[in-house]
Amino acid sequence: MYAKRAQPHHPDRQPVTIQDLIQSAAAALEPVSDSARLDAEVLLAHALGKTRAFLFSRSDEHVADDARQAFDALLARRAAGEPIAYIVGEREFWSLSLTVTRDTLIPRPDTERLVEIALDVIDAHGFSRIADLGTGSGAIALSIAKERPACSVTATDINPDTLTVARDNAQRLGLSNVEFLLSDWTGALSGRRFDLVVSNPPYVASGDEALATLAYEPSGALESGPEGLDDIRRLAIEAPGILVAEGKLLLEHGFDQGDAVQQLLVASGWRDVRTWRDHSGQPRVTGGVRA
Hints:
Blueprint: E1 3-4, H1 18-29, H2 36-48, H3 52-57, E2 62-63, H4 65-79, H5 84-88, E3 90-93, E4 96-99, H6 110-121, E5 129-133, H7 139-147, E6 152-157, H8 160-173, E7 178-182, E8 194-199, H9 230-238, E9 243-252, H10 258-267, E10 271-277, E11 283-289
Parallel strand pairs: 5-6, 5-8, 6-7, 8-9
Antiparallel strand pairs: 1-2, 3-4, 9-11, 10-11
Helix pairs in contact: 1-2, 2-4, 6-7
């Protein structure tokens, strides 16, 4: 399937250019997307098996009928609310192209802030042992592994299908300093010690209206009790058991949970507890040092 100048063979369809197709698709997606034109470009590039740069350079070319049919099918899924990342099967995070499926959350730009803070904590030239708990697609673990190749990263998840996606991402990206373990938070890490534990755990309150907009993503990776703090509370209690003395914990959380997470960490005996803001100025990551 590719764009071509010849008219399509389907007798019921008028020839249409890449540019026209993008414009009409963007208009159709405006009611469901804040990035309608970008969505249209990504979906058309996927249907054509090309890049967005190809679309820009060949915008006046006609689109073959089979490619239009494939694009229409993708467009219908997006119009129904399915996220782009699940439709095309990938998402960029930290300049890494990650495979994502309905077994994984879609990595968000906010989580890159957690990676930045972790990299500031990790010695850029020495050896450290890092654990990423609840790794999902592997976004955090693989980003750290790429930037700190001398370090050892252990990534865990409770869902074996999710862990398979993360492991496949590591293999495809050629990152060999990551191991993957099936684990309910720290359960499979007994006897191990790490210098840093990072996690983007579930932190949405059960029944939160935001869950309606996240219906395509796995609820188990989103919901965490009536306040959204059940898993964070558990990590605050369990993480010291797998950290070395002076080891550090970094947790992503909701923009309105910074104070509550600080209180949980202090109550669990952590010291030097602080919260970092994301690039939108919202409290996003809270951490502490093992006492």
